[in-house]
Amino acid sequence: MDEPPRAGATLTTTAGNHEPDHGPDRDRDPGPDRGPDRDPGPDRGPDRDPGPDHGPDPARSRDARPGPTVSTARLAARAGLQLPYAEQGPRTGEAAGLPVVLLHAVGDSWRSFEPLMARLPQTLHVLAPSQRGHGTAGRPAQGYRPADLAADLAAFLDELGIERALLVGASSAGFTLRRFAAAQPARVGGLVFLGSPGQLAGRPAAAAIRDWADGLTDPLDPQELRGLVDSLVSRPLPPRFAELMVRESLRVSAAVWRETVHGLLDEPPPGGLEHVTAPVLVVWGDQDRVLPRSDQERLAAAFPHATLLVHEGSGHVVHWDDPARTATDLAAFAATCATRP
Known about the structure:
The protein is α/β, with parallel strands linked by helices. It is 30% helix and 16% strand.
């Protein structure tokens, strides 16, 4: 029987049952990338590049909002690792508020957040890096465990001069957030977990997941990855966006998939989270076929000030299933975090 959540966790349910807003003109080709797609340096390694990027989510055409700018951060503290990142919103001044940093899951890139970023208020300063081995980021041969990615995150914030931020992790990126928050709680202005597992080690499906990752070889199978993308949502994705996510997954080599999955499966239960005093939001879709609600309740209970928010009708990747609702919830939570000292 699952343990009940600790008293520090608050459980909340949204009123769903509406058709998600993916934006009009969903089948239009998004167009060229707004930022450079250049070779980030010698640490990229031998992995192949399956093709050029394609542009921002077509939902932006609704209000003629500009898409994010794409730049590259070179992390001197991480052997010169180069991470491309998308950025939008005010950088300085009172309007900038608390920066919001979006971290994608294994197999994705910053582009997995395009539908969400297109719907976030323009007053939010939002940054979304592609993590090592993903997208057009540097591809070292090693360093794909949560502790490594948390160190990359710290170096990324340092490089951009960000002392404190609201950190958002999609699925497996939640492991990175927990590592970072436990090590540097003072730099956490808030945490948001979007369909992030509380724990994978010891779960009945862990052996099957490891076997799947160990069986991957280059070149990866586009049809297998398309099936994976489709399985993560409860509603059909806009075709162009689904195809984009498959292309981004193909950028990730079998070795990076394997090393990242091994790191997730070997990650011990999180420790030190009781020292994270910032507010925490755990968002879970009740049609999630990967994570049960009990897992999310345990994750929320690990923090002193956490809320579990249920998106009715959404699957594992809530920000794909219903980006408009996710953006509304994230913006409201960011406003709450911004008022805290």
